[in-house]
């Protein structure tokens, strides 16, 4: 096992194709220890991604987020194993959490731009436009005052649908294409007319 793991890791340093590498490791595991491909595939893909980040950080001395921001990690070459382990964790966190941070920030800017364009073109009073009041990790909380005098239930439903459509287009289409993601960027929407804690999934 030690010889096999040494061979795999040394090969990874030269590898840039995560899919091909994952396929090779998965097929080897299936043959060697009789495991189902479907049970190990997701974990091997993640493992390969981590190793490629490690090797890139060690070779270049830094890692980059999806939009190119760099974090330099001189401790990757430290003789202190604790410092190396900390630098490896920082490498992974920077790529994953740093890219997620870029994504949500650009999503906020894009959604606000689309809100301004859509509602101003309809001459909607600013007090009745969706307003971002909170961001929590990958969640955005908007307050939307649509109980205007004389507004019917049908108008409220239509207004909510318009905003949900705007949200999903801004995030899934515009942000998804900007980041060139290999997996779809899905947006789940929950609503409530009472409080944040009573929100239910919007369908």
Task: Set down the secondary structure blueprint.
Layout: H1 2-14, H2 18-33, H3 37-60, E1 62-64, E2 70-72, H4 81-121, E3 131-136, E4 139-143, H5 153-179, E5 190-191, E6 200-201
Antiparallel strand pairs: 1-2, 3-4, 5-6
Helical percentage: 55-70%
Q: What does the radius of gyration come to? A: 23 Å
Shape annotation: elongated
How do the strands of the widest beta sheet line up side by side?
1-2
Number of helices in the DSSP assignment:
5
Low-confidence parts:
4-16
How many beta-strand segments? Answer: 6
Order of helices and strands: HHHEEHEEHEE
The fraction of residues in strands falls at 5-15%
The separation of the N and C termini measures 50 Å
Would you kindly provide a written description of the structure presented here, covering whatever features stand out?
The protein is mainly α. Strand 1 and strand 2 (70-72) form a beta hairpin. The strands form three sheets. A two-stranded antiparallel ribbon has the order 1-2. It has five helices and six strands. It starts with a helix and ends with a strand. It has helices at residues 2-14, 18-33, 37-60, 81-121, 153-179; strands spanning 62-64, 70-72, 131-136, 139-143, 190-191, 200-201. The chain is elongated. Helix 1 packs across helix 3 (37-60). Residues 4-16 have low confidence and may be disordered.
Notable traits:
mainly alpha, elongated, 203 residues, 5 helices
